[in-house]
Amino acid sequence: MAYVPKHRKLKIRWKVAAPLLVLLLLCIYILVSVLHNAVSPEPKRYTICDFSQEKTAERLSKQYKSTYAISDYFYYGETLNLMQNAYHPEGNDPLAGKTVQLNNLCTGEKFPFVFESAADRQIALDELTPGMYEIFVIDDLQPKRAVYTSVFHDNSFTTVKRKGSINKINLFADRNFLKKDYQKTLDQDYLFLEVKAAKPSDKQYDVILDPAGYNKDFTYELDKGVEANGLVEYQENYQAAVALKKDLEAYGLRVLITRDKMDKAVDTYGEKGRLGAAYRSKARYMIHIGQNESTYDSVKGMEIYHSNYSSATFANALLYDLKKHTQLTGNTIYATDLDNAGVMSADLVEGVDGRKIYDGDMYIRESGGRATAAGMYSEAAATQNGAFAKDNREGIQTISIYYSYFTNKQDAAYWKDNRAKIMKVTADSIARTLHVEKNK
């Protein structure tokens, strides 16, 4: 008979197995957690200033008892205008004369601006460093936190290119803007301004140059401009614009000319006209280049025009530099201040609505958006420019420079021999005014 061994009963040594089982379960848990996080990372919350989420929520959710209501805003050039009341060109807003202070939550910097009625004398965006700003109005010596009368978000504005970079501006007021990420609701629609450095776009421009002439939308034939002393205005203006573009680009500025060829006719009004191109370019500044004529050949000198709704600061800087570095002089015929002879605001003219509030210089008026009541002066302005200009919050700050009187022999001869130098000085002056440094 064969020997059959007895069946041994399997015994589990729990003192050894239990720890191994726990270790196995722990490893499985860790592996599942890692895989889950790799596939479904935690949603990223909105933060500012490289702050943590907690610090961001803490800084942005601060509430104030003393506030000041803002109900309107627009940009002009690189200046942000804020208003207590809805904007009307006819009168000054109650904010004029008050100090508005921007506090950078990221750096602790404070930027005070004394508001003037001029559209280029409020918040200078080119002076702000990147960060998130709370806005205060100093009213009766008391800082009051600015709030807006409705919810809005506007992040379409960018500044001029400087040192290879631009700043993107995000202006907003929304008591619920922290609700999605932090489940926090503010008690009012506080006004914030966020500034972020960004890479400039090749499809956007900083300065647009408009050489006068070679349009036909007002005379129904090509406008060649002044023809005197061997000079033809539309040709001279275009060649000047080409030179000025090159000189400005040496500072890194993005520059566009409204006529891409000397003999290309481009109307002034309409989507396809010079003004339509100016708005599409997103340029913050426009220089309209022209020349003058007179029935009296003794009349001479340059004339630089600015809007009635802007200060003379830009125009005066150009006049000063051109007088200092060239032999150009200002026209003294209409001057009330001989030191700044040649600088003038455009005459105010009456529109079809019976209001005498419109800049007589169409290039200055129609490029300035809401700031200069664009798209309202005439039926042509309303029908051709109204759609893109009338309610445009991003007004272009425009200067019209009439460098000389071609009907004056001395003016004509100096322009002919020194056009390149005059454009170089113009470019240097513009760059200095815009605080733009030359590329190295």
Automatic annotation (TrEMBL):
GO terms for biological process: peptidoglycan catabolic process. InterPro entries: MurNAc-LAA_cat. Residues 223-337 form the MurNAc-LAA domain. One of its GO terms (molecular function) is N-acetylmuramoyl-L-alanine amidase activity. This is MurNAc-LAA domain-containing protein.
